[in-house]
């Protein structure tokens, strides 16, 4: 694969569409075409990521497959091109470096638009050199239907005012297609017709992409248990067993896969007691971005490292399990039921003393996941503030999101 960067200098305007594209789907193409038309862009450049710093790169498809699927999907549109600039880079790919390289290949005044999702723009300050990135190009923020556009536009205004950025919002009638859903449909032998271009669909089946990941039953739990005993203190080991047991109970109660819940519970803290210097090294190895809050509170890193180790040590590739491990400390908006279960089990597992609202959380956890999640988030946030530590944005977003869910459904007076 060779990037055609030298051709960029002849373009009057460029929009950059980045992503893992695993696989690329009609949602990506719809966004790109809408931006092309709205901003009168000559070419939209699709850039499949190589080693993405914000995602656990373990478990994603090979570079060549993601590149070729993107090429196939964009063949019919003369205004779409694909660049392998990040795929050719063996190190982690950072947007600020990619855009700088492209900008250096263009004429000085060539407009460059960077297409970014609404969730991503809120996390822009966890990216490499965010303030320089904001000045390099114009950002076009797109969102899914029913997104909180008032909050989004307020954040965009702040970026434009405080950082002299050029960020705009484009409303697009998107559907709810997602790459993870497509992968799951293939795995479960469900149709993906009309979710991806026909030639991409053929490619997926031709190369047997997204086949069933490692089955939970294939995991050697005796090996996992030995690892836990060898690498965790007695109290942390007991906590881990408590989390896995409570996760199993909640999974059964809510019809969630019990094997997945038990596995996520066992592995959620495997990086908890790794020394700090080793955690920093592992973050670099796995491409885990250390944001400002994590830099000041390195104990938050263990969740993300645990997810990476779950794959590298035990072959876990199930995205829901990995996300449940990854977000069990901070939480996040729009959590899956498995993610909620592991978050709750970590907070309220039976080995913890019944104090500071834990009894209420335990009782509520068997009746309403969202309500008990709000109680657990409030408790965790209150504890963080008591220690005079900064709240991670993911926790704040999670609490705001699920409080709104409860109010919208009129479930509880909160």
Which structural class should the secondary elements be placed in?
alpha/beta
Low-confidence stretches: 1-6, 54-58
Shape: globular
Tell how many strands the DSSP assignment holds. 6
Secondary-structure element order, as H and E?
A: EHEHEHEHHEHEHHHHHHHHHHHHH
- Fraction of residues in helices? 40-55%
What does this structure look like?
The radius of gyration is 22 Å and the shape is globular. It contains 19 helices and six strands. Helix 16 (337-348) crosses helix 18 and helix 17 packs antiparallel against helix 18. The protein has helices at 26-38, 63-74, 95-105, 118-122, 130-136, 149-162, 179-187, 198-206, 221-231, 234-254, 258-267, 276-286, 292-296, 301-314, 319-326, 337-348, 358-365, 369-386, 393-409, and strands at residues 14-19, 43-48, 80-82, 112-117, 138-142, 167-170. The chain is α/β, with parallel strands linked by helices. The protein has a six-stranded parallel β-sheet, with helices on both faces. The relative contact order is 0.09.
């Amino acid at each position: 694969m060779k990037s055609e960067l030298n051709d960029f200098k002849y373009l009057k305007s460029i929009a950059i569409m980045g992503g893992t594209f695993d696989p690329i789907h009609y949602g990506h193409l719809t966004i790109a075409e809408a931006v092309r038309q709205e901003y009168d862009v000559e070419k939209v450049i699709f850039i499949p990521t190589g080693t993405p710093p914000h995602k656990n790169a373990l478990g994603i498809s090979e570079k060549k497959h993601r590149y070729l699927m993107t090429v196939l999907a964009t063949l019919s549109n003369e205004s779409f091109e694909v660049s392998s600039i990040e795929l050719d880079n063996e190190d982690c790919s950072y947007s600020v470096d990619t855009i700088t390289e492209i900008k250096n290949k263009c004429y000085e005044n060539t407009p460059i638009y960077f297409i970014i999702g609404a969730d991503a723009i809120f996390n822009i300050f966890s990216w490499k050199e965010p303030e320089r990135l904001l000045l390099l190009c114009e950002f076009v923020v797109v969102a899914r239907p029913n997104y909180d556009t008032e909050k989004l536009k307020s954040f965009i205004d702040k970026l434009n005012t405080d950082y002299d950025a050029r960020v705009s919002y484009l409303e697009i009638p998107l559907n709810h297609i997602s790459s993870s859903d497509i992968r799951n449909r293939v795995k479960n032998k469900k149709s993906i017709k009309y979710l991806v271009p026909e030639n991409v669909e053929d490619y997926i089946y031709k190369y047997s992409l997204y086949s069933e990941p490692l089955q939970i039953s294939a995991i050697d739990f005796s090996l996992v248990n030995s690892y836990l005993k060898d690498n965790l203190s007695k109290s942390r080991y007991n906590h881990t067993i408590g989390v896995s047991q409570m996760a199993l109970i909640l999974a059964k109660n809510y019809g969630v896969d019990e094997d997945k819940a038990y596995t996520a519970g066992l592995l959620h803290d495997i990086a908890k007691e790794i020394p700090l210097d080793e955690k920093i090294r592992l973050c670099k190895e796995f491409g885990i971005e250390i944001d400002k809050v994590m830099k000041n509170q390195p104990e938050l890193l263990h969740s993300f490292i645990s997810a990476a180790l779950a794959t590298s040590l035990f072959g876990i590739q199930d995205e829901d399990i990995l996300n449940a491990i990854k977000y069990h400390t901070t939480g996040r908006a729009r959590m899956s039921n498995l993610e909620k279960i592991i978050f709750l089990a970590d907070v309220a597992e039976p080995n913890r003393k019944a104090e500071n609202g834990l009894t209420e959380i335990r009782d509520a956890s068997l009746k309403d996941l969202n309500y008990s999640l709000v109680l657990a988030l409030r408790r965790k946030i209150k504890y963080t503030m008591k220690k005079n530590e900064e709240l991670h944005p993911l926790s704040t977003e999670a609490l705001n999101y699920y409080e709104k869910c409860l109010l919208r459904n009129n479930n509880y007076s909160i």
